[in-house]
């Protein structure tokens, strides 16, 4: 597996983890609350991420996609694709705004600063990043992923080693957790649908810049497997410490701080990096929808949309998440369905129908 495939995998993971991993609350509500069945849920989500990542990367490379619009037109046709494009573009911007608000909330909770300081800091960082070339953006977005994986592995090991509650107590506590769906499988599918809608635009642009379908497909699949592994480890860590996480808004940060103040600081930095990765991915894909990357128009578009996003972020993180995320989840379900239909149609075609772009 070549270097580009690994970078694509890390970038794919990096865009998604900011919206789906940062606080740990997402894992609690979509997985841990289902008790032992949550393990099956994490495996299902991981399989979906791997399959969808591979298929989206393959389609994007085949099309040499310049933005997610090209892929949507293939999946849905011209008219329906145009509607999906408008909806997804709108929600991309909304998630980017939510990440700016999340940065403000993190600075307030951890350092006692005004949320405005955190949001402005992240906005400036994002604009500077978007002024770089695409390869450097991919590199920067993928940097946070190895740090997060290492921290989650350390926290999971420590959590299992120091857990003081028995299984019966943990199962009882898990039943009291709020969950997003009546069944673990539906929770896993909903989690994948929201996050794939977040990761799809950036993945489409990155994979579209390569001509090697095999490498990009492998990168998409590897990123999905990595996401599944992270979900599994974090879910196990949270489950075995439910007795100490009651009422925690940022359970991952609480686990890290219990291990060591130094690890707590590292987790704070990691969360900031996750927010940064997702925000860059969202504003990059949004700007790429209207202008070609690495051009003056693209940089001007990036500056404009980030500035507007900064103003809108003052509405507050909780409010934005409550309004943007659920609707994006429904959009993600439609996208997943279209990818599966496209895959099934390709399976029915002769092997020579899809050529390898050398």
CATH topology term: Hydantoin permease
Backbone shape: globular
Average pLDDT works out at: 82
Count the helices. How many?
A: 14
Largest sheet descriptor = none
Classify the secondary structure makeup into a structural class. mainly alpha
Radius of gyration: 20 Å
Keywords: Membrane, Transmembrane, Transmembrane helix
Organism: Pollutimonas nitritireducens
Protein name: Membrane protein YkvI
Notes on the protein architecture:
It is a single chain. By secondary structure, the protein is mainly α. It has one domain: Hydantoin permease. It is built from 14 helices and no strands. It has helices at residues 3-20, 25-30, 37-63, 68-76, 78-111, 115-130, 134-162, 167-175, 184-208, 213-239, 251-259, 261-290, 296-312, 317-348. The protein is globular, with a radius of gyration of 20 Å. The protein starts with a helix and ends in a 10-residue tail after the last helix. 52% of the residues are buried. The model is unreliable at 352-358 (pLDDT under 50). This is Membrane protein YkvI. Keywords: Membrane, Transmembrane, Transmembrane helix.
How are the elements arranged and paired?
Elements: H1 3-20, H2 25-30, H3 37-63, H4 68-76, H5 78-111, H6 115-130, H7 134-162, H8 167-175, H9 184-208, H10 213-239, H11 251-259, H12 261-290, H13 296-312, H14 317-348
Helix pairs in contact: 1-7, 1-9, 1-10, 1-12, 3-9, 3-10, 4-5, 5-6, 5-12, 5-13, 5-14, 6-12, 6-13, 7-10, 7-12, 9-12, 9-14, 11-12, 12-13
